[in-house]
Write a structure and sequence with these properties.
The protein is built from two helices and no strands. By secondary structure, it is mostly helical.
């Protein structure tokens, strides 16, 4: 009897399953990091937009120089908001990419789990058939012996 018979038949796939699980874990970590980065970018955008709203709703400066400075600041703030929207879009795209990578890794893990389960089930069915065949042979021998002893 080889050492292989001491293990579940699907055990030969365990290294592949472990590799798939590690890949899934890494993909999930990347997804969480991408989601966190996206949340940070969204918070920054919200802060800029809130600041812009406060600037627009504030009192109008009295001097022309203060008014010019205010317009320049609002213009820079508008540019910063546009840039932050781009950053947020990139972060959201990264989240979607990370999500797709995790889904693929998750699929690989599930595939190996199903394969191991299928191999173990196949081996169990084979063992059950072998046991049934042995039981049938014993019963047949018993009947022959009883028939022979009965004088038949």
């Amino acid at each position: 009897m080889t050492s292989r018979n001491h293990h579940a038949p699907g055990a030969r796939f365990f290294p592949l399953l472990r590799r798939a699980q590690a890949g899934e874990k890494d993909a999930l970590k990347n997804l969480a990091e991408a989601q966190q980065h996206s949340a940070v970018q969204l918070n920054k955008l919200n802060e800029l937009q809130n600041h812009a709203e406060r600037m627009h709703s504030g009192s109008t400066p009295q001097s022309s120089r203060t008014l010019t400075n205010r317009h320049a600041f609002i213009s820079k703030l508008s540019e910063a908001i546009l840039q932050q929207r781009k950053q947020l879009t990139q972060a959201q795209n990264a989240v979607e990419h990370a999500r797709q990578q995790w889904l693929l890794a998750n699929h690989d893990t599930r595939r190996f789990e199903r394969l191991i389960e299928k191999e173990n089930l196949r081996a169990q069915l084979h063992a059950n058939r072998r046991d049934q065949k042995e039981q049938d042979e014993i019963a047949l021998r018993r009947r022959r012996f009883v028939h022979h002893m009965a004088g038949g």
